[in-house]
Amino acid sequence: MTTTLPAPAPLTGFHLYDTTLRDGSQQEGLTLSVADKLAVARHLDELGVTYIEGGWPGAVPRDTEFFARAGEELTLRHARLAAFGATRKAGVRVEDDPQVAALVDSGAPTITLVAKSDLRHVTGALRTTAEENLAMVRDTVAHLVGLGREVFLDAEHFFDGFRHEPEHATAVMTAAHEAGASVLVLCDTNGGMLPHQVTEVIEELRTRLEQAGAGAARLGVHTHNDSGCAVANALTAVRAGITHVQGCVNGYGERTGNADLVTLLADLQLRMGMELVPAHVLEETTRIAHAIGEIVNMPVGTRAPYVGASAFAHKAGLHASAIRVDPDLYQHIDPQRVGNDMRMIISDMAGRASIELKGRELGFDLTGEGELLSRLAATVKQREASGYSYEAADASFELLLLDELGQVPSYSTVESWRATSQRGRDGTLESEATVKLHGDGDGPHERKVAIAEGNGPVNALDLALRSALRERHPEVDDFELRDFKVRILDAQHGTDATVRVLVRTSGRGLEFQTVGVGPNVIEASWEAIYDAYTYGLYKSGV
Amino acid sequence: MTTTLPAPAPLTGFHLYDTTLRDGSQQEGLTLSVADKLAVARHLDELGVTYIEGGWPGAVPRDTEFFARAGEELTLRHARLAAFGATRKAGVRVEDDPQVAALVDSGAPTITLVAKSDLRHVTGALRTTAEENLAMVRDTVAHLVGLGREVFLDAEHFFDGFRHEPEHATAVMTAAHEAGASVLVLCDTNGGMLPHQVTEVIEELRTRLEQAGAGAARLGVHTHNDSGCAVANALTAVRAGITHVQGCVNGYGERTGNADLVTLLADLQLRMGMELVPAHVLEETTRIAHAIGEIVNMPVGTRAPYVGASAFAHKAGLHASAIRVDPDLYQHIDPQRVGNDMRMIISDMAGRASIELKGRELGFDLTGEGELLSRLAATVKQREASGYSYEAADASFELLLLDELGQVPSYSTVESWRATSQRGRDGTLESEATVKLHGDGDGPHERKVAIAEGNGPVNALDLALRSALRERHPEVDDFELRDFKVRILDAQHGTDATVRVLVRTSGRGLEFQTVGVGPNVIEASWEAIYDAYTYGLYKSGV
After folding, report:
1. Residues whose CB is less than 8 angstroms from the CB of residue A201 and which lie 6 or more positions away in sequence, other chains included
2. Ramachandran region of residue A215, left (φ > 0), alpha (ψ -120 to 50) or beta?
3. Rounded CA gap, A465 and A127, in Å?
4. By the 8 A CB rule, do A20 and A44 touch?
């Protein structure tokens, strides 16, 4: 089935093109489910990127499914969805190439075609001729443009190819432009370029394109970090007039990663003065970068520019007194502009300030509560040192705060619990859990003993706890544990390490996270789940 | 005590100046003992850096001790030791400033003095006048040069200061040069510069220095990564004629870190053609970077340029077939030149070509085994779709391959296992596991029932399995499970989700990863641990 779409209006402004879902997922250790991809795409849209490359439909089954589900489940406010694919095969009519048909069938309004532009790759890897390579580009671009698609050309190995032999590299670009491609993207596929080489290639390419009558072509850039210059190379390309940059959130990507799109956005807007997204959107950058890090289970590096936990952290010492005089003297931008915070490491004052801020966020006015803030700061510091992390677990932090305020609700006293998993002689897996508790507060205080089976020990514990609470608090059934993340701390200890569990719960119009830490995954999970029910019941006014 | 040294001969070649032991240790979470510092210094010397900044004697007690012990315990073959310190205090004679005296007493042949060069810092933070600031620079440099020290000037906030008000910034540099400083270092202390700004500042500074009669001054650069451009900014400065670059191994440093000196060295030598260290020294780069990462307990990032574990790892099926033809088409340098290796990552994007390459890496020649490769590719794809990930789990992949070849060893047949965790009435946590199995292969086949306690259910299972295998295979005790990673797949299902566990095991000279997937963390862990013992025993020739 081949659908002709009404040609999408070109996005004339600067293109911030994200390829986290395609090139980013080439990173070692990064594997995204379709649900992950949809969740990342929503965050990218919120970040204000102009294009989201969703994957390679037809080549990767998961990506085919992503585009199918995106059509139904994904409502993008700003971004446009792009499908990645290749030009037609050598010696095959474009109409007969199933890979090209799958791109069309994906329904994506924009299609980014990768093409060889380094003659050595054309003959050595593709094993075809320069002429056929040009025909492949021309045919595929024209075919897709004819079907109403916006087409971008990713010229693979462009910098290496152009520096080796500029005629063919230029001819590929000219062919794509003439066939109707909207953007010609110069890819530093192997990632070895340095900034001055980027400038040289772009300037010479422009001259050659003008000579070929393709001077009006819009250029883009796609960089990798193999020489440690991915971001600088992209910025340099923008200085040289390029208006479309590709990258991945948090610098994910094959080998050393792609240009970090978060850093690029902040650099372009805050250091080069471009107005790419509204100021209030930029203030969400840190939150979004970390949220995506959680989804892909590859946390933002502490040293990441702008959004890393240490990006605006100052070790006490040489700078401390000067920072108190004027923080702007010691930071290159105001961290609030990207939603991050200045932090004084090992500084009671900074700890209190951020807890006051966090309290305000949660609706508690703690102004002037110096002693309470000091106590809370000390507790948080001590608990974070033992493995807790309140960064994501707002609900657990709020319970801690309520506890300090003497307002923490107690719905039950736990006597004991047990969880068992086993594989029997016939190979069947069984998990069951027992929970014994007494009701607290008003109402009957009798002892409850509940048992439940689950498809794992944590699931069984969750069901047994819910069952023990149900009679007095039927509201527990309105909550659902939606996400469950385990991180091993101090990994050098093997199966003997400390474990942190984050649980996301939703229900009764709420969505919140709790945290548990313990010497084993069951104990840590128990703590997070127990907090989740406590918080859920408390917020329900029970 | 003030020692006059014979003035050291200036190092006329390019300066690779490492400040890992001073600026690098400002990184959040990085704390170095004196022994650590000495060990790092030896590695830096081996790497071929020209200067090692050891710390701030006098200001930091540990650094005073470092210089004292370095004099006796540290024999440097190439590098020269530098002490970091500040110019004299405002309103104090340089001879009377104890901080300056401590620098002299450190015995370091080179002293790097930090000075304010941004007028706003002079008046706002230092609370003194421009004239006094210049006198502080002049006096301190002349004093130390008079005592036979080689003196470098670190002009703090130079780029920001120069862009704000170039007269004073230039005057600081001129004063230091006239007083005898060998190198004037432009510091981007807040780390926000972009490459084109670096070029602009250096060019304008040169013009001003020439006008001031200080055109012969040697310039250096010190960059931070707050805009993601630390390495590019240093390279750009070198392109602009600077012959002294400062950085930290692995990019350690305050906030977002300093310029990564490892990346810088490799870029300068391999991509800009400078001969900084002999080729055989460069081949030690990966080993040294990782060794330092171990000492400072902050491992090299997998995505680190040149030396990261993923720096030359290829995942995409698209590339694998071409890599087989010519690896150089797909990497920006030969990884052997920095002592790293190309690696093929097996994933669901992998086709037959990458499996063939992976097999070769593991010592299996699968050339011409088309049918076997197709079967393996299909198995990998199907298992990855159900949650397995062979990217990191080489050992599990090898077991899969051995299975296809009918060579998979079997050491036991598992009858059943059970793992229990509980919290009792008194709050004590207990985890225990039972494993029942029969021996396979040669030797007694009798049934073994083993029970073990652990600090969690997985630890208990590990110990029980080990105990059940021990009598027939005492080699199991040579292995240790070192790392344990849990990933919840399809997280939307909450505690009901599929779980993937990666286990890293070492022993008998081996280090390898195995993977397990299951509906619960216990079952998935069991599979990964069981594979780990199977693989370990097989590789031990049992």
Report:
1. A158, A159, A162, A163, A186, A193
2. alpha
3. 63
4. yes
- Chain B positions touching A121 (Cβ under 8 A) are 322, 329
Strand pairing partners for A319? Answer: none
Q: Is the ipTM of this complex over 0.85?
A: no
Q: Are A483 and A511 in contact (CB under 8 A)?
A: no
| Cβ pair A316, A349 in contact under 8 A | no
Give CA–CA dist B463/B478, Å, rounded: 13
User: Picking from B177-191, B379-393, B496-510, which range would have the lowest pLDDT averaged per residue?
Assistant: B379-393
- pLDDT: which is higher, A203 or A78: A203
Chain A partners within 8 Å of B347 (Cβ): 31
Q: Where are the alpha helices (DSSP H) in B48-83?
A: 61-73
**Burial (Cβ within 10 Å: 0-12, 13-18, ≥19) of residue A281:** middle
Q: Tokens 């100021």 — which residue?
A: A279
CA neighbor of A224 nearest in space, from A276, A199, A187, A197: A187
Q: Report the distance separating Cα B498 and Cα B386, nearest Å.
A: 9
CB neighbours (10 Å) of residue A367? 10
* Confidence at residue A1, expressed as pLDDT on a 0 to 100 scale: 47
CA distance A431 to A525: 15
Taking only the tens place, the pLDDT of each residue in B79-95 is 999 999 999 999 999 99
Q: Running DSSP on this structure, what letter comes out for residue B493?
A: G
Q: Residue B475: its pLDDT value, please?
A: 93
- CA of B62 to nearest chain A CA: how many angstroms apart? 14
Q: What is the mean predicted confidence (pLDDT) over A271-296?
A: 92
- Residues A322-338 have pLDDT tens digits of 665 677 888 999 999 99
User: CB count, 10 Å around CB of A302?
Assistant: 17
Residues 208-247 of B with CB under 8 A from A: 225-229, 231-233, 235-236, 239
Structure tokens at B169: 């910034």
Q: How far is B414 from chain A (nearest CA, A)?
A: 8
Q: What is the Cβ-side half-sphere exposure of residue B54, based on CA atoms within 13 angstroms?
A: 36
Which residue in the set A303, A429, A520 is minimally distant from B519, CB to CB? A429
What's the 3-state SS for A278-327?
CHHHHCCHHHHHHHHHHHCCCCCCCCCCCCCCCCCEEECCCCHHHHHHCH
Q: Comparing A205-219, A251-265, B301-315, which segment has the lowest mean pLDDT?
A: B301-315
CA–CA distance, A259 with A239 (Å, rounded to integer): 16
* CA–CA dist B349, B391 (Å, integer): 11
A409 touches chain B (CB under 8 A): no
C-alpha dihedral, A80 to A85 to A90 to A95, nearest 10°: -60
pTM recorded for the entire structure? 0.75
User: Measuring CA to CA, how many Å separate B53 from each of A424, B44, B402?
Assistant: 62, 10, 52
- DSSP helix/strand/coil, A191: coil
For tokens 């380094």, the residue is: A118
User: How far apart are the C-alpha atoms of B193 and B402, rounded to whole Å?
Assistant: 54
Task: Kindly give the interhelix angle for A230-239 and B195-211, rounded to the nearest 10 degrees.
Answer: 80
Query: What's residue A444's pLDDT?
Result: 61
Residue B362 reports pLDDT greater than 60: yes
- Give the helix/strand (H/E) hosting A114: strand A110-116
Whether the Cβ atoms of residue B156 and residue B117 lie closer than 8 Å to each other: yes
B412: nearest Cα among B330, B372, B358, B468: B468
